[in-house]
């Protein structure tokens, strides 16, 4: 028996180690850096003259993080002064298409290089200490302006710019982009530098990157009561800068660009490819714009969702700024000069210069991919006579445009048709190269998938070394869940709507457990608990709408909770009370008065924090209790959170002491104590509207404790309900659903480790709840004499993880050229990593094993 257990444990350890290795190997092949052309672009000699001078000699580039198009252009906008500039023709508005992933670092790369960044930048975007994403060696319009020596380069705002452009700015004051709890200081730290810089005449570029609007979105969504006041604040800054441009002589030839790096969805998040996330506003402003005669109605309505005025690619910003500032287009640019600005030059020769230099620059990237022979006018191959592929058509049209350029420049050929055709060619080339698949490392993709399959085979082999025959039903049942789930990974719609699989699978599973219990008991009343369990599950499913297709559909929170906040706080306070009672009942190592004091203090601290936090985060849910708490408890929110965490830490230490040196019943009580302590932590890290999900989960756990389940029943139930609560919380397989609202509880600044842990606990609060809850069920089975229940639990959990990881890898490999590879399958792989490394290895295996040992260490 001991030998078999030792061998099974060794095989599972190897399988879990291979999971980590396979995920890393596959990721390095799936998310490689895209190659880039080094060095700065230079003006090449063209037959029809020197490059034209730019109409501007200074530029203010203002990024308002998450500036969705409707925030500026709609009737509800707070940008009234900006809208007046649009009506006067002094601001030319656009909606920029920001390609996924819609997070800051990749978007700044796109804006400054004109390229389409790699999806790996989404990962690098998280770590503020990362230096590998630097653009110091790449060609950007910032590098071109610095090379031209237009004056000093200054930057105030998001310190991502300092990471991307080290040693570039002569004056800078960076602020952390991840401290989303701050709406005000993070912007005031930018604004306070502006008056002095507007008086200075030694700079040629001033970058301003405001973060407050994005932080409001993350905390409370685009319809937050703080949103319009923040828009008015940003509009006031635009008014001040534009006013200085009109009155100060040294700012007369200044180009003022205002844009968002991305937008946001209805939840206030971003990272995916919904229309709200990919539609930031873009405006070019200057008194000189009035000469173009391009006034527009403002406010206005979108012609399609979030699409206002002209639509351009976000990468078009780079060549447009290059042309307007009179510098070469960056070498890696895929953007096209925005043709609305061509009238700044009166000569057709200048129009040819601007467009041909842009076209020849993109042509270098095209020919680096497809070869030069098709596009070379001296080649004997005629692409116009070849099969009508996109590349052949592009080469055919290029030869015609290149041959006509000199004639247009000399006035021998009408310029307007040629300009229109060239702009169309630029768009075609841009579309072709932007949609090209990444340079995957196929060897690593196959190796990573092979390692995952090997881990699955090792786990399956461990089944046959487990001595008790009844355990064989467990792997079979787990395979009936795992294989259909894995096959779903090959369909984008199923990935986007994954929650339906878990909702229906858990419904069928609970119905099976209930029917089994009814058959076992032969009591007429035995159907009550199964029906109650299924009803509870139905409430969980309806709590938050999730996925993509029905994300905005009615749910319990939108329909009942938000209009009637009292309906929220009754179950919230009930859950805090039940949890405090659990701490009191199970903290057996203290005398009754001391544990009552500890339980009440912990509950009051945690509830006070949640009431005050919600009053600031979602004031529409406040029913006045926050003011009462504030009058009693005056500590700051971070201090309040830290005190709560400290009390929970003390409780955990007492639980360890109780297990190891307390009375013989201590270990049994400790399993329940750790679950109650975690439930309090989970509530601290959850939005107030999601705390009733924990109450429903607690009721389900109570229901499961009444059933007669074997070990594999417990494991499968645990797995199903972990996924159910993740999606019930509003989670999806889109990066934009990552909730950062509680990522800074108790923290005054950015710390990647602390923020990472708190973010994980915020988004996986439900799954971890079921880990600690399942531990109480497993510990009880162990105390009743079921041997090796933890080993079998880990075996089944590992079986699911290894097979599901292999399926996800196989799907990403097979569909690597799919249209939705970067918007659906790549984010799913990142979530797969989080589930496998975070939830499975760290929580289910490591933490679960420790809690199980502490809860059973005195058994027998």
From TrEMBL:
GPI ethanolamine phosphate transferase 2 C-terminal domain ranges (all copies): 437-856
GO molecular function: CP2 mannose-ethanolamine phosphotransferase activity
PANTHER family from the UniProt entry: GPI ETHANOLAMINE PHOSPHATE TRANSFERASE 2 (PTHR23072:SF0), PHOSPHATIDYLINOSITOL GLYCAN-RELATED (PTHR23072)
Protein name: GPI ethanolamine phosphate transferase 2
Compartments reported by the entry: Endoplasmic reticulum membrane
SUPFAM superfamilies: Alkaline phosphatase-like
Metabolic or biological pathway, per its Swiss-Prot or TrEMBL entry: Glycolipid biosynthesis; glycosylphosphatidylinositol-anchor biosynthesis
InterPro entries noted in UniProt: Alkaline_phosphatase_core_sf (IPR017850), Phosphodiest/P_Trfase (IPR002591), PIG-G_N (IPR037674), PIGG/GPI7 (IPR039527), PIGG/GPI7_C (IPR045687)
Membrane topology: Multi-pass membrane protein
Species assigned in the record: Emericellopsis cladophorae
Similarity comment: family membership: Belongs to the PIGG/PIGN/PIGO family. PIGG subfamily.
